[in-house]
Amino acid sequence: MISPNPENWTIASLSKAIRKREISPVEITRAYLERIEAHDSRINSFITLLPQEAMKAARQSEKELSRGNDRGPLHGIPFAAKDLFFTKGIRTTCGSKILKNFIPAYNATVIQRLQAAGAILLGKLNMHEFAYGTTSVNPHYGPVRNPWDRERVTGGSSGGSAAALASSFVPLTLGTDTGGSIRIPSALCGTAGLKPTFGRVSKYGVYPLCWTLDHPGPMARCAADLAMAMNILAGLDPLDQSTLSVPVPDYIKGLTENLKGIRIGIPDSFYFELVDPEVLASIEKAIQVCKKMGATVKRISLPMLPEASTAAFLILLGEGAATLEKWLRTRASDLGDDVRSRVNLGAAIMATQYLKAQAIRRKVREIFSLVFQKVDVLLTPQLPITAPKIGQQSVPWGKKTEAVPSALTRFTRIYNLVGNPALSLLCGFSSSGLPIGLQIAGKPFDEATVLKVGHAYESNSRWKERHPKLDG
Predict the structure, then answer these.
(1) Is residue 280 within a helix (H) or strand (E), and if so which, with residue range?
(2) Confidence class for position 28, pLDDT limits 50, 70, 90
């Protein structure tokens, strides 16, 4: 029987229970809405909640399923979307004051695909303004608070998406990742998040920040749930020219509980420098788990990573300024201070700097292509730190300090630069009870192997059985 506690629900367990008539879409949706009502005032993960619309959709799903009209594994499963995915007739604020009353006339492709599969939209999630930041401390809608410690950030920019999952408000959310914005909050909140290959998931109807770095993707409680979502989300979209006609596998069928034959690469530098010792210890334990499951693990050299990180930052600044320049010109006072300063900084990027960054991008892609001839995935810390406190500006490293945004993106934005898929999973907790994230990255359009490794690791660990306490 399915557990009565939403903390123990996954997409897979709910989908199975619906088909065994152990629970209905109406009961599931009502339970999540009641949990949100009871606890989200302390987390602040939602900007717009849709209780009436969600219950109407749940009743419709229940009728369809009772008549044998089963649209697939996500039929009757609730989800929520970061508030930059266009939703027809439902406001889409992008976490901004400027768009607080913007109501799109159409759905983003990924929203359309999920709803066509029978998934139920619960609402729109809080985020860093215009997706341009790493903390989800939002000056217009309030900060998203980390369920594990409400004085700490969730990470950004998809902070509400991860916080809602960690709080068991919903089993599936949508996020976007431009410099780590799916993976950073997933790591800080102890959930799972996948940045797919660039071109694997449609960006149509997603408010842009950087057209060559933006990656929409699913966020959930575990790798298996991400695989179920990817079966719906992945694939060519004629409305988005950046998507490619690459065959989409059945991601669920590729999941196993061993890693025999899998080659795991561990970078010999960069990813293991200036890292919290507790993070390093958790990553080393994860590596040993993978070895016990049959994986071959070897150290590899990845040159030009510092240059790649700088190039990604320059491209982000340049493209972000181009996207948001109109708001700087016409509504500057309505932008949050941090976003306004980033747009101003980006406006000063010279064409020569942007073009040189693109040249570095090409070289780094070649390096990664050669490395992935030798290994199937790369395994690293997702972040060098655990969740900073709200308002914290820097991270101490001995006599040196590092700005929080730099620390949070140092290990993430390189995969936005090259476009390879990258997965964040929970792999431990600090002594103060904060989640620690593991990053698994793979070859272009090989999300199947990345998810396979992630699922196998989760099957041999019990970290995801821990839940934050929301009372008090």
Answers:
(1) helix 277-292
(2) very high
Rounded Cα distance between 166 and 151, Å, is 15
How would you classify the pairing of strands 149-153 and 120-125? unpaired
Specify the DSSP element, H or E, that contains 452.
Answer: helix 447-459
Pairing of strands 78-82, 394-397: unpaired
**pLDDT per residue over 405-428, tens digit each?**
999 999 999 999 999 999 999 999
**What is the rounded distance in angstroms from the CA atom of residue 314 to the CA atom of residue 14?**
43
Q: Which of 226, 298, 267, 284 is nearest to 452 (CA)?
A: 226
Q: Which residues of 188-202 are buried (b: 16+ CB within 10 A; e: fewer)?
A: bbbbbbbbbbbbbbb
Helix pair 337-347, 305-330: axis angle to 10 deg: 110
Catalytic residue of the set 15, 24, 82, 167: 82
Q: What is the mean pLDDT of the chain?
A: 97
Least confident of 45-49, 84-88, 464-468: 464-468
Q: Per DSSP, what are the bridge partners of residue 9?
A: none
Of 24, 181, 282, 424, which one is the catalytic site residue? 181
82 is an active site residue: yes
Q: pLDDT at position 472, please?
A: 67
- Residue 365's SS3 state is helix
Tell me how long the chain is: 472
Rounded average pLDDT over 66-87? 98
Give every CB contact of residue 341 below 8 A, 6+ residues apart in sequence: none
452: closest CA among 294, 233, 266, 236?
A: 294
Tokens encoding 44: 């602040």
Looking at domain 6-465, does it have CATH number 3.90.1300.10?
yes
Cα-based distances in Å from 247 to 241, 257, 415: 16, 24, 21
Q: Tokens for 3?
A: 């557990």
Contact yes or no for 82/174 (Cβ under 8 A): yes
- Say how far apart CA 429 and CA 58 lie, in whole Å: 36
Q: What are phi and psi of 93, to 5 degrees?
A: -85, -20
Q: For 95, which DSSP code?
A: T
> CB neighbours of 214 closer than 8 A, spacing ≥ 6?
176, 177, 178, 203, 206, 208
- Rounded to an integer, what distance in angstroms lies between the CA atom of residue 186 and that of residue 463? 14
DSSP state of 294: T
Instruction: Read off the tokens for 232.
Output: 């719906």
Residue 181 annotated to the active site: yes
SS3 category, 300: strand
Domain locations in the chain? 6-465
User: Does 315 score more than 80 pLDDT?
Assistant: yes
